[in-house]
């Protein structure tokens, strides 16, 4: 679950394939710049939050069961991503295991949908 303090921003939580990080993705899909607070539900207080574009540590507050980032500036049509890093190996393994077992238990329809790569263009045979 994610949220922004203004409706002009779109937010989404993602988990990396190895389960070591959760990512808060945010997009300003508007032609005007905006400043907003962002929030993402997390399983516990993280050790750090990293701005994935700059690599800099981002100040955060752990509240209401998640991470709050205050006063994030967005230029027009700008996307931002923040990594929430879990600290200990034990915390990482627990999340990794849940992610992997969820992936392994996908239904046949989910596996088929993930494997589909879109329409295929038929190649016509040419005579030489």
Q: What is the arithmetic mean of pLDDT?
A: 84
Q: What does the radius of gyration come to?
A: 19 Å
Number of discrete helical segments: 2
- In the CATH hierarchy, the architecture is Sandwich
Cα shape: globular
Q: How does the helix and strand content classify structurally?
A: alpha+beta
Weakly predicted, low-confidence segments = none
In which range does the helix fraction lie?
A: 10-25%
Order the strands across the largest sheet as they lie in space: 1-4-7-6
Q: Report the count of strand segments.
A: 8
Helices and strands, in N-to-C order?
Answer: EEEEEEEEHH
Which percent range describes the beta-strand content? Answer: 35-45%
The CATH superfamily is known as Golgi alpha-mannosidase II
The major beta sheet can be summarized as: 4 strands, antiparallel
**CATH topology type:** Immunoglobulin-like
The domain tally reads 1
CATH class: Mainly Beta
Distance between the termini: 58 Å
